[in-house]
């Protein structure tokens, strides 16, 4: 883990976790199948390792079935879109 200035710890995936993440991304790209139970297990295991939040920074990971059911998963693309709308001077009314 890396500790940043504002007391944020960053969990570094091990090689097995990285490989599973990459395999999941490529499988979704190749097959359009968004069912990824092994990746969901990885996300659950991170929570068990005292990870407070998991940030998804890949569009393929963001579309995995049921991934957003975990209240500790953050989709970086959602944040980017919301902040871009705010920067243009608009408000986000409803998030779907």
**Molecular shape:** globular
Order of strands in the sheet with most strands: 1-2
Helix percentage: 40-55%
Largest sheet: 2 strands, antiparallel
H-E string = EEHHEHEH
Parts with pLDDT < 50 across at least 5 consecutive residues: none
Q: Work out the number of β strands.
A: 4
Q: Overall mean pLDDT score?
A: 91
Q: Provide the β-strand percentage band.
A: 5-15%
Number of helices: 4
Distance between the termini: 33 Å
Q: Label the structural class.
A: mainly alpha
User: What is Rg?
Assistant: 15 Å
Structure description:
It is globular and about 45 Å long. The longest helix has 17 residues, at about 15-30. The termini are far apart. It has about 100 residues and is mainly α. The strands form two sheets. A two-stranded antiparallel sheet has the order 1-2. It has helices at about 15-30, 35-50, 60, 75-85; strands at about 1-5, 10, 55, 75. About 45% of the residues lie in helices and about 10% in strands.
List its salient traits.
single chain, 96 residues, mainly alpha, two-stranded antiparallel ribbon, 4 helices, 4 strands, globular
Secondary structure topology:
Blueprint: E1 2-3, E2 9-10, H1 15-31, H2 37-48, E3 54-56, H3 59-62, E4 73-75, H4 76-87
Parallel strand pairs: 3-4
Antiparallel strand pairs: 1-2
Outline:
The chain has about 100 residues and is mainly α.
